[in-house]
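pipeline: protein-struct stage 2 | run 1193 | histidine kinase
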Amino acid sequence: MDKGTEVTFDILFSNASMGILVTNEQGIIVLANPFLLSQFQYTASELLGAPLAKLIPSRFHHRHSSHVANYHTHPKSRPMGLGMDLFAVKKNGDEFPVEVSLGNFETQKGKFVIAYVSDISLRKKAEEELKHLNEELEEKIAERTSSLTSTVKQLAELITQTEAKDVELRRVNIFLHNVWEHAGAIIFATDPAGTITLFNPSAELHLGYKANEIIQHTSPVIFHQEQQLKQTARTLSAEAGLSIAPDFAVYQQIAQTNQPKEFEFTYVRKDHSTFPVSLNITAMRNKEGCIEGYLGIAIDITERKKAETDLRLALHKEIELSELKSRFVSIASHEFRTPLSTVLSSAYLISKYTESSDHAKRQKHVQRIISSVNLLTDILNDFLSVGKIEEGKIIVRPASFQVKEHIQNIVSELNGLMKKGQKIVYTHEGCTELTMDATMLKHIVLNLLSNAIKFSPEKTIIQLASKQNQTGFCLTCRDEGLGISEEDQQHLFERFFRGSNVSNIQGTGLGLHIISKYTELMNGTIFCKSKLNEGTTFEIHFAIQPC
């Protein structure tokens, strides 16, 4: 580096706001910046020359030495302790959670490890709050992570304290160069007006620009989405009671407080692709306190965002499953009461009909028991089907079978459920050999016919038709029942939904939901035509290969 760059680096590292330390191969701390000294409440004389274990809780010492040896054997830039909870200890014995990123470099003095240390106490607190909302989840979303910044103010102080100033300066420059070259974060600096003056290799790698395209040519505003920057400007304006323009003024306002503050943005690469970052902006001031530029450090948080999304989805799924269980208990307690009462009363009466002349009466009650048991089985099957669908455990298994015979058998199973005078008329048109999931088709037909029987009066005809031609397979079910209002049709296939005109009729509100899900799994479409008191028609189409 030339003299001008060295001075710029001095300013850059003197104004960063993150804990940084450097250790040698023996694990001895050789450099520590003021921010880190403040974090751990040590003075430079107390910490420099001390083993790194001084900053680590004693219960982790036995593992720390093996981790250090392993890292020196396979050194590379990476997060430390991925998937583990890391803790550090202050001078007064207080422990606090940290996030550590590691880098390495080698000079004539030997091999060194550079560590960026972030206090993530706030994030851990947020994780605990989220954990409190749902104790069944083992991992929670971390609302925010602390920023990673880079400072070398301590290097300048060490230079003024040594007699071999020139030698120390060269050593510092080597350290600066390695920090600059090997840091995993995007690091850039600007002049007071916002023109970029420094752009590190990691910034080139992440953003797709070469340093010579950026330095002295543009501001970091080009990395931002326009609408997002406008929204941030509005937020900062409201907080400060000022009118902040959606340009570099946003950076200037962020740095005004002189306190580390992390902002999440979506950065735009040169090829227009995007990725999320955690950005920290620091004003670089001279001895008089005047701003000479700004330091920006951005960390790619793509993996963190993915983890947060996965956790949110898991939480949402957990809530849905919990709701399903609660609904099951509520509905089961209500829907099981009538068929169980029927079974109990019929069983009692059968025990009284002991004479051979009572055979017809016994058969009547046996049929009532069978119908009630079938109803209970249907309710349980509905819940089991919904549970498997929600868990993604339903797999479509297409196979060739005789569709006409298959549906006729299904119709026969429902004879015991039909009301007095009801009749199911089934017709088929076209080829009878069909290739699809026969079990799913059975669930669809059973639910369609069960609903038609349930919501149609006595002495009515239920028409069921299947058709296979060159365009695919079509299933139609038409009844003469209560019908469905236009308003209810908007929610017809929602889980647990029941029409406003069927509250006095038993049901779980799952049948049509299951039909729609099975239809969707087999790439089919379902249509409903209905008017109140004029019956309902359901048509289901499957685009399959003709026989």
